[in-house]
């Protein structure tokens, strides 16, 4: 329990209505998408960077940990208050401050919901590409902290590629600004990109300067069924080799397809053992030509069937198949470990074979889908935790999946981050020397270890 | 002078032929493109990261500063050995280690010359876009250290956008690896981007993992003469508003055009007071359509004349006009201060008017050209240093140019960096709090201040 004196001081900083130590409120801020729970002592809702600065100074004086939080939609526990203390949520800092149509730049507060921002810029013909699956509720501040990805990243890159500048409150309570609204800038260290993906451990983002693109005129979706995952993977390489970078190149393996068929009654030929959903965007007239070219390129690679959407409704129907995956999986088993390894694109088939082998060996169902275009595979280990021994098997399987990805030149996480969920596995990927460099940096910037302690590297 | 014992130890580390303390050799490593000179005590040519690690450990033990150097083509003194000590050049680490055509990734040593690398990847149908003006001699290691830009950055982004991973020797001599060959990765802090543009102060890059693109099928160049800089600037905005992002959008102001006319005898109508060189790339068939569309879009904006290249030779002739700028300027005055401010794209005309006003007020010729598409203006202050008082006037003018850019939401440098040339102006752009964050980081990672001391922030 936090001293009531500290809670009083927090009330003085942000106002009475913006602080709660009521149990019912605390519970709301105790979990994230990992379904793990840690109770904070108090939740504060600051509305300005000055308030956040004062909170951080107080926390340093009193040695109370602070856990910044967006929507709490993260998959790895990055916002969980693992040591109690203060949950600092930016959800009430939710204003779009500027959309500069001339310079294709926007300025927002961190609590703006990703999809709301996309809708706002699309209204004026602009485009913010990053599209994490959580975009209906995740916030841009959280997206920056985790460096969120999504299906469109194949063509357009990840969150950090769109962040031009930030205002940040440092772990010790200074307010700093990084980058700015220009397309280029090399004055001092690139703290903007350092913050992106630092999981709320190096600073609290209070304002975000975002680069926008012109909204593509149109898009075209196609769903292609292949007789093997190798055919689908070769198709991805062949498309890229032909100088086409589609907006999305999503895949599902045979096991995922089985789940979807079973759950939704989707009618596909029995020969189909892998799916690619390919979307291209750009000039309307050019798209038809491009879709036909893609169909020609991939035809020899074991295509069982190709469906090209001719209307937005047909496109939506194709995407609905992809969206039904998560719900379908729940019918396999109630508990899901959702990992997101990333390997060089050409290694996807080999990785899927490894995962299938691990799945068979441990007798735990594992289904794979995700972003084939950038080698980012969502590996879903489906178990029933109520069955004794299942959790242990899943954990062993996860470790082997990570080791398998690393052996192929890959990484443990393409977009979900480390948080606490993957922190125990960090030594598999990061050498002691590299870890020391990172920890030295964190320690220098947060000498009292106040800001989101115990994330990425377990204390 | 460095103790001969230390020079002997360096010889033991890298071999006798890879160390020189001869004056003639030292002179070769005493200058860069700023034309300033600082003599080092010794030059070493390591060939492995292990050797560099040992050099850094020795330097820390002996408290000798180390100045890493690529080709020495920087404009801001980032590689100058301002405190004597060791110049560590990576020019003999010049191997392209891998070009992975399947995954569009290359791995190189830091001493590979930028253009040589571009030629090598283009041979296999791939593309490395960053194109600093120095590309015929600058090295990729130097490009990473400075985060080099170039004309193609409007469409394709800067060096850091292509760096996926690095091997780095830290200031204390550890060998660390950052990132990797995957398109996504969020494990730990993004040290890769932190190194990019850190001007050799946070680590010495020893291996670079580079993202490549498919080589565009074709390109098309057009040169457009406008009756005012405002027309040219409006043209840039209008093109982008029409969802076209050209590969390059280079501009020259009226004063630059005057220099080129005078020096080369270029024939253009007297009404021409600004030039845009626009290049688009991509699908051959699509390009003609796009070039015509651009011509239509910009026609109402004061176009005096449009020249569209129909052949590669005609394209080359148009680019020759742009390339003649630097030589033409030398005819105005012998000494050039080449600044590279960057402002939001829409502010370019206002910035040019400010610069013209500063030029007139101080009576020093200033000509502007550069990358209009991303607001990156090369401001060239032309003086004759032999004339008493000229240098002081130039320095006052530069400060006002920087202040002008910052007042428009811009930055002092889009691609040249800070080094020592702009270090005195850092407080204009970076707040004391932000500078403290950066300095804390440097101090923690380089406790003895051995690696490139006195750069970015004057000691």
Task: Note down, in words, how this protein is organized.
Chains A, B: Belongs to the FAD-binding oxidoreductase/transferase type 4 family. Chains A, B: Its cofactor is FAD. Chains A, B: Pfam families: FAD-oxidase_C (PF02913), FAD_binding_4 (PF01565). Chains A, B: GO terms for molecular function: FAD binding; oxidoreductase activity. The structure is a homodimer of 459-residue chains. The first copy, chain A, has helices at residues 4-14, 23-28, 49-62, 114-123, 140-146, 153-156, 191-195, 229-241, 254-264, 284-298, 312-330, 348-362, 390-407, 426-429, 432-445, and strands at 19-20, 42-44, 66-69, 86-89, 96-100, 105-108, 126-127, 163-169, 175-179, 204-211, 213-214, 218-226, 248-253, 274-282, 303-308, 335-342, 366-371, 376-383. The first copy, chain A, has 459 residues and is an alpha+beta fold. Chain A has 4 domains: 4-89, 2-Layer Sandwich (Uridine Diphospho-n-acetylenolpyruvylglucosamine Reductase, domain 2); 96-214, Uridine Diphospho-n-acetylenolpyruvylglucosamine Reductase, domain 3; 217-331, Alpha-Beta Plaits; 333-417, Alpha-Beta Plaits. In chain A, a hairpin with a 5-residue loop joins β8 (163-169) and β9.
Brief account:
Chain A is α+β, with helices and mostly antiparallel strands and 459 residues long. Helices cover 36% and strands 21% of the residues of chain A.
What is the count of helical runs of chain A? 15
Oligomerization status of the protein chains = homodimer
Number of separate structural domains of chain A: 4
Number of strands of chain A: 18
CATH architecture of the largest domain in chain A: 2-Layer Sandwich
Whole-number average pLDDT of chain A?
A: 95
Uncertain stretches of chain A? none
Describe the global form of chain A.
globular
Structural class of chain A: alpha+beta
What pair of chains forms the biggest interface? A-B, 89 and 90 residues
The major pleated sheet of chain A works out as:
7 strands, antiparallel
Radius of gyration of chain A: 23 Å
- Please give the share of residues in helix of chain A: 25-40%
């Amino acid at each position: 329990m936090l001293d009531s004196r500290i809670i009083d001081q927090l009330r003085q900083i942000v106002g009475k209505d913006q602080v709660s130590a009521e149990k019912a409120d605390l519970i709301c801020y105790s979990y994230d998408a990992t379904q793990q729970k840690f109770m904070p002592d108090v939740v504060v809702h600051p509305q300005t960077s000055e308030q956040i600065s004062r909170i951080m100074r107080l926390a340093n004086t009193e040695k109370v940990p602070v856990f910044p939080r967006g929507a709490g939609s993260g998959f790895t526990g990055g916002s969980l208050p693992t040591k109690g203390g203060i949950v600092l949520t930016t959800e009430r800092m939710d204003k779009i401050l500027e959309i500069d149509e001339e310079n294709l730049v926007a300025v927002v507060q961190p609590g703006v919901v990703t999809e709301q921002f996309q809708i706002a810029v699309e209204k004026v013909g602009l485009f913010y590409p990053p599209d994490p699956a959580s975009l209906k509720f995740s916030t841009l501040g959280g997206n920056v902290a985790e460096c969120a990805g999504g299906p469109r990243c194949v063509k357009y890159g990840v969150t950090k590629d769109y962040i031009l500048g930030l205002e940040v409150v440092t772990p010790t309570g200074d307010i700093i600004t990084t980058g700015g609204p220009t397309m280029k800038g090399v004055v001092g260290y690139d703290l903007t990109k350092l913050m992106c993906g630092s999981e709320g451990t190096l600073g609290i983002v209070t304002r975000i300067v975002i680069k926008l693109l012109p909204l593509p005129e149109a898009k075209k979706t196609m769903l292609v069924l292949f007789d093997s995952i190798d055919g689908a993977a070769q198709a991805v390489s062949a498309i890229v080799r032909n100088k086409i970078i589609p907006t999305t190149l999503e895949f599902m393996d045979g096991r995922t397809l089985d789940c979807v068929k079973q759950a939704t009654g989707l009618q596909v030929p029995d020969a189909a053992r892998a799916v690619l959903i390919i979307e291209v965007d750009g000039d309307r007239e050019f798209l038809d030509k491009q879709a036909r070219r893609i169909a020609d390129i991939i035809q020899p690679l074991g295509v069982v069937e190709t469906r090209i959407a001719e209307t937005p409704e047909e496109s939506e129907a194709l995407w609905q198949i992809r969206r039904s995956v998560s719900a379908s999986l729940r019918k396999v088993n109630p508990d899901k470990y959702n990992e997101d390894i990333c390997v060089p694109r050409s290694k996807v088939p080999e990785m899927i074979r490894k995962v299938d082998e691990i799945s068979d060996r441990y007798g735990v169902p594992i289904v794979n889908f995700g972003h084939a275009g950038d080698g980012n595979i969502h590996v879903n280990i489906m178990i029933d935790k109520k069955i004794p021994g299942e959790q242990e098997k899943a954990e062993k399987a996860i470790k082997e999946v990570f080791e398998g990805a690393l052996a192929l030149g890959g990484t443990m996480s393409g977009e979900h981050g480390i948080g606490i969920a993957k922190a125990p596995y960090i030594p598999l990927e990061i050498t002691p020397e590299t870890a020391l460099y990172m920890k030295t940096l964190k320690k220098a910037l947060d000498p009292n270890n106040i800001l989101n302690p115990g994330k990425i590297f377990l204390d």
